[in-house]
């Protein structure tokens, strides 16, 4: 049922090594551990992988290439994480990739048999970037377990494209790639729904975002401002170090104090 009957290899081709310098699109795979990221990665790249290290880290970095519809894709298999709070090395790598690397789209691989837990990471990712698409993997396994996911309802809640796939057999993987190409080439702007906090928190977040732009006008087109604001009121030292201007720091501490006061 979940095979890919219409194509031998879904027209996903191995890339001639000479073309690797002419990458058209860079995509990244992220998600909880054990959700099938590497299975999808291997399916796409047919194991044409370059293994390296993340800068300063001993965690292995997998990059691969494939050709689909005359486009050369570079795909990065990010370490599996349950959150992006940067407590562990894997979380830090994935988070820093999303924040600072150049990519066209990241594919959040969700386990259809464990959707609720997987959505925790999903909502942290969409605080950092809007450039996401969901690959709802292990649909075959969900089916076996009698789990039915109403994709349309989920789409309405998340507001991002969701493609049910089976990474193991390649079911719907070409549909996923077609969607990605459509989004990138037609510059479709994605606006995933974010978690809304209570009113007093939302108010402080908005103020921080506004003040960040006032202090740093160059940040006005920066789509991570809300995430920075969230991390700042959560007391994230990494972000504080990033914005290590004294005046800003003072201002942010005040915001945090104000929030604590509001919450009391
Ligand atoms: N039935 C089924 N099994 C799958 C599918 N995709 C992956 N698996 C299996 O799920 C297990 C985990 O897959 P991986 O690709 O290693 O998962 P991962 O997300 O890379 O895991 P980490 O690297 O640990 O984060 C493997 O045993 C896969 O064979 C799928 O679509 N259907
Ligand atoms: Mg893996």
Task: Characterise this structure.
The structure is a single chain. The protein starts with 11 loop residues before the first strand and ends with a helix. Helix 7 (199-215) crosses helix 8. With 264 residues, it is α/β, with parallel strands linked by helices. Strands 1, 2, 3, 4, 5, 6, 7 and 8 form an eight-stranded mixed β-sheet that branches. The longest helix has 18 residues, at 246-263. It has ten helices and eight strands. Bound molecules: guanosine-5'-triphosphate (GTP) and magnesium ion.
* Rg: 20 Å
Could you tell me the CATH topology label of the largest domain.
Rossmann fold
Q: Strand-residue fraction?
A: 15-25%
List of distinct ligands in this structure: guanosine-5'-triphosphate, magnesium ion
Q: Which CATH top level class of the largest domain fits?
A: Alpha Beta
Counted up, domains total: 2
Percent helix among the residues? Answer: 40-55%
Overall average residue pLDDT: 84
- Overall geometry comes to globular
Q: What is the CA–CA distance across the termini?
A: 55 Å
The helix/strand class is alpha/beta
Low-confidence stretches: none
- Please identify, by name, the CATH architecture of the largest domain: 3-Layer(aba) Sandwich
- How would you name the CATH homologous superfamily of the largest domain? P-loop containing nucleotide triphosphate hydrolases
The count of helical stretches stands at: 10
Largest sheet, in brief, is: 8 strands, mixed
Query: Could you spell the SSE succession in H and E letters?
Result: EEHEEEHEHEHHEHHHHH
Annotation, overall tally of beta strands:
8
